Task: structure prediction
Amino acid sequence: MANKNLNAAKSAKKDEFYTQLVDIENELKHYREHFRGKTVLCNCDDPRISNFFHYFSYNFEQLGLKKLITTCYKNQERDLFSQHNSERAIWLEYTGDHNGNRVPDPEEIGINYLQGDGDFRSQECIELLKQADIVVTNPPFSLFREYVAQLIEYDKKFIIIGHQNAIKYKEIFPLIRDNKLWLGYGFKGGAGHFISNYEDIATAGDHRDGMIRVSGVTWFTNLEIPKRSEDLILYKKYNATEYHKFENYDAINVDKTSDIPIDYYGVMGVPITFMDKFNPSQFEILGLGVANLGLECGIGPYKPEHKKYRKEIQKRGAVDGDLYMMIDGELVVPYTRILIRRRPIPYAVDEETPMPMAAETDNN
Ligand SMILES: C[S@@+](CC[C@H](N)C(=O)[O-])C[C@H]1O[C@@H](n2cnc3c(N)ncnc32)[C@H](O)[C@@H]1O
Result:
């Protein structure tokens, strides 16, 4: 019985953790100009407890919003930790302060009942989605793929929280590659504290009462933000000893985003943390290599000799398509690499820095 409970707990979708107001404020201060005259939807939020609802209702006038709609999933009790024991849910509508006290009063907030449980995929919630210009929330991580797919299908602007591992999802990566989705400003140190009664596994120094620490959490958006046009400052120069070439793909390996060489214009495999620094005028994204999955998103071709170390690759439990290098006779498969290429610049960085055409690549 104990084992059964343990397994049930392990497989349970841990979606009940709630965003702090300070984290919402820290991110959304970069997007203020996008909200004027817009309808905002928070569709995974019990408005009675959601800090997203709090943020938008209290900043309604400053942001110049037109309307705020918030939908609640199942639970109708004023309880932070949803029991999901009610099949009917509510949605709220707020159109701003009408009595001049600059506070969202209960009588100014329209409470409506949904027919179903408030699932963002239900037709009645989709009808509310259609009214929205910008969707802002922290959606259930377990449904992140479907959640984003729906936003894209209905052509919505959004600012949402997710895990950086989602960058690697085969449904999400093509959106990133094609500049339909990018990372926002994110959480300090790449981790956030969320209000939750789940057991916190953070170390004592990182623990906060009543919260869980989630590392790797970030913001995803398709709204333009200044960060996106800031160049990553590069300072290292390419050299063949430090930057190994993949055996099976015409690209070099770069272990740290800050080590991207200033003078290399061929394809580079960089860690996933690069996405936080990505400026589409500086780099283009070509593909993704994930250890044990191989290359994704059809960027091929592999070099003809890519099957040379096939047996050794299989012995390591990796797959044929994995990017790999030989370092001191050892076969090395990096965990995840985003394949990028520097966009040519119209000027030489200094006299010694070769222009793009002269840079050392396997194509030359
Ligand atoms: C990570 S929590 C965040 C809650 C809230 N957005 C916040 O940031 O405080 C995700 C929420 O989505 C709700 N949820 C789960 N499945 C859902 C669904 N199918 N449709 C709408 N909401 C859902 C969960 O009940 C949970 O409260």
About this structure: Residues 288 and 338 are 5 Å apart (CA to CA). The pocket of S-adenosylmethionine is lined by residues 15-19, 44-45, 50-52, 73, 82, 118-120, 137-140, 143 (CB under 6 Å). Residues 1-11, 76-83, 356-364 have pLDDT under 50 and may be disordered.
